[in-house]
Amino acid sequence: MLQIAILFLLGLTISGPLLAAETAAQPLNIVVLYADDWRFDSLGCAGNSIIQTPHIDALAARGIRFPRNAVTTSICGVSRATLLTGQWMSRHGNPAFEMFKTPWAETYPAILRDRGYHVAHVGKWHNGKFPTANYDYSRISATRHWVPARGEAGKQGEKIHITALQEQDALDFFESRPQEKPFCLTVAFFAPHADDPSPAQYLPQPNSMSLYVNDIIPVPATANEQAFRNLPPFLANDKQEGRRRWSLRFSNEAAFQTSMKNYYRLITEVDAACGRILDRLKAEGLADNTLILFTTDNGYFHAEKGLADKWYPYEESIRVPLVIVDPRMDKSLAGTTNNAQTLNVDLAPTILRAAGAEPTQRMQGQDMSPLYLGTPTSRQAAAKSWRTDFFYEHSTIRDISFIPSSQALVTPEWKYLYWPDFQQEELFHLTIDPREEQNLASDEKSLDTLRDLRERFAKLRDQAK
Which of 399, 400, 37, 395 is nearest to 196 (CA)? Predict the structure, then answer.
């Protein structure tokens, strides 16, 4: 029987090649479980004592979690293009929700299909028109929480929750896939993304409404007016989309509790759907030969700095979960964490190497597997040569009063932010100021650091092209 691999997202860097991990003798099947607007700490295994994510927590207990994982652009369409191409936005050319400019033949689904894989995509797309002909199985769904049911039920006007629909579409894939071929399945859940046109924003399934009823979700320390006013003036105004969405979700204590509880309910629903997909693999005898990777497309503000959603280069927006279960991994690593600076740009190269294929020359990430495969000595060598910083970028959306462009250099100790539309800088010492409250860009004591970070920023910005 073919060995199986379920991947949820892996990360590589712009900083140069790493030692490639050994690949299996037979092709690994690949499953990418990919949620939306779900930030790094919205998991029980990440220390959240309220949220219920038992199935992903169980994955983390079997595999390895990367707490510092981040995205190179924090918006749905761009991040998904990066997943497929292994490239920064500057190279793949999708500034928002368009089809990327990178030739399809250079994406990981195309390369795997060319090698004989049965390639499937379920759920959200957000990169222009979906290229149906490039997939063997596809079920693309709307970006609303309640959508028409499929088949006869849909004809009768019945609605189904988007998470339930996407779960069923994923399970249906297993009914039709050819048993003799390796496969690559991406399940791109829409939840917990808000239902933007709805005044309620977050619309869980009725059977989830009993969850979190007696819980009080802690209000973040920076969810206050002063933190909002401390933002640059082009952000600290009611015209910015991050502030407008905050007014819909978090403008008072009652709204905050309602929004967060429903957001958590949507997450628990996706967790349950992931559990049923994994149960299907187990029922087919594939669980012990499966590489599992869970991640999401971007982070999310939970009212920090008086904001909602993502886009801006602050920690809440750019950091996302990453959990990997790899049957090739030494069992002693089960349940551990790895603080390497992994990125979504690393996913495509990692997926390809796991399948025994080579990344294209224009892919900018690196195979993550040397960080958790091989001997302790080889893993230490991989960790020593891994990236220690990265470049972040985001285009202007609509106009600068809506969502302005932003760029950043992120290191373990510092973050340098540059706002091109306003030629303004910010500088935060993350070690002593993890909430990014004290802008040191004009601090005389930080001038040498600022100069060094500008130079490194310019270098990585050029490399991203």
Answer: 37
| Spans of the chain below 50 pLDDT | 1-24
- Residues 338 and 450 occupy one common structural domain: no
Beta-carbon contacts of 456 under 8 Å, excluding residues fewer than 6 positions away, are 389, 409
Residue 319, amino acid: R
Beta strand pairing call for 30-35 and 291-296: parallel
CB 37 within 8 A of CB 194: yes
Q: Is 440 within a domain?
A: yes
Q: What pLDDT digit, counting tens, does each position of 71-103 carry?
A: 999 999 999 999 999 999 999 999 999 999 999
Domain that includes residue 273, residue range: 29-391
CATH of the domain at 93: 3.40.720.10
Alpha-carbon span 168 to 40, nearest angstrom: 26
Query: Strand pairing partners for 424?
Result: 419
Name the helix (H) or strand (E) containing 259: helix 253-283
Residues 75 and 214 occupy one common structural domain: yes
